[in-house]
Amino acid sequence: MALWKSMVVARADLRMAMKVKMVKYGLVMMAAMAPIMLIGLALLFAISAPAFAASMIAMLDPVMSPVIGIMVIIPASMISANALVGEKEQNTLEALLCTPLTDRELLIGKVLSSFIPTIALLLGSVLVTEIATIIILTSVGAQAILFPGLSSLFLLLVAGPILIAAVVSVMVLISGRVKRVYEAYQASGAVVMVLLIPLILPMLSISNTGNVDMNLVWLSDIFTLLIASVLAIVTWVLAIRRFNRDKIVSM
Predict the structure, then answer these.
(1) pLDDT confidence bin for 210, thresholds 50/70/90
(2) Alpha carbon of 81 to those of 91, 94, 129, 234: distances in Å?
(3) Where are the domains of the chain?
(4) How far apart are CA 164 and CA 18, in angstroms?
(5) Burial bucket for residue 236 (CB in 10 Å: 0-12, 13-18, 19+)
(6) How far apart, in whole angstroms, are the C-alpha atoms of residue 185 and residue 137?
(7) Helix (H) or strand (E) run with residue 80 in it
(8) Residue 33 pLDDT class (50, 70, 90 cuts)
(9) How far apart are CA 24 and CA 79, in angstroms?
(10) What does the alpha-carbon distance between residue 154 and residue 24 come to, in Å, rounded to a whole number?
């Protein structure tokens, strides 16, 4: 298997997806929304009393991973939803499937076209947010902290890519089985909601009084990682077994 062949498919697929206004503008909006929201919270913390800011940060930190997670998983589903059905609508699918690529090389190319930009979006969102938060807090003489904190960073940077891989694998399969792009977009909403559930688990560590048990947070993070890993393995195995160019052409 030649990875460079898959990368050629990935680049072409991403260019095609970016021609769709819904995908292009959705990607830009999602890329900006999470950092703007979190930087706004950092500004609020900077002008608040230290005790209040510390309690709010502790309470909100478990919420940050699902917030950022949904902002990057939605673009992944939008790009991958367009993977095959978009080719059908533009009458380029048969030419693509007749290229001298194996089914696995073609599948990997379709997955990478969504996975790579989404990972870049995830890393960029986290990096911009962390740097901006530190600058804001230090500029007003407050103590520099990580926001999102270590537990959320662990969840986003370890479980996040695994969940993205699961979403993309499922959506590529769905894209090959629907007849219209809008049908794939509709299905992507359900897929995202189901696969986001693991990222929401750390929110259960927040008590009714707003207190956060960090031991419970880390335990839920590890549990989330395990669930994400199982989902990714199952979806990837299904994608490999069910991706068949002959069936896609005949549909």
Answers:
(1) low
(2) 16, 18, 28, 19
(3) 3-250
(4) 19
(5) middle
(6) 40
(7) helix 50-81
(8) confident
(9) 9
(10) 29
Distance between CA atoms of residues 135 and 148, nearest Å: 14
Looking up tokens 């992507």, which residue turns up?
188
On whether the CB atoms of residues 220 and 202 are closer than 8 A, the answer is: yes
pLDDT (tens digit, 9 = 90+) per residue, 223-237? 878 888 888 898 888
| Alpha-carbon 182 to chain mean position | 20
Backbone angles phi, psi at 206, to 5 degrees: -85, 125
| Helical H segments across 82-155, by residue range | 85-89, 93-97, 103-139, 150-154
Cα angle 42-211-128, degrees, rounded to a multiple of 5: 25
Which residue type is seen at 105?
E
CA–CA dist 66, 99 (Å, integer): 39
CA distance 230 to 65: 19
Q: What are phi and psi of 48, to 5 degrees?
A: -95, 165
Contacts of 175 (CB under 8 A, 6+ apart): 80, 81, 82, 83, 84, 85, 86, 110, 184
Residues in the chain: 251
Prediction pTM value: 0.84
Q: What is the separation, in whole angstroms, between the first and last Cα of the chain?
A: 26
Q: How many Å separate Cα 130 from the centre of its chain?
A: 18
Q: What single-letter amino acid sits at 226?
A: L
User: Do 57 and 144 meet the contact criterion of CB atoms below 8 Å apart?
Assistant: no
Question: What pLDDT is stored for residue 83 in this prediction?
Answer: 84
Give kind and range of the element (H or E) at residue 30: helix 21-46
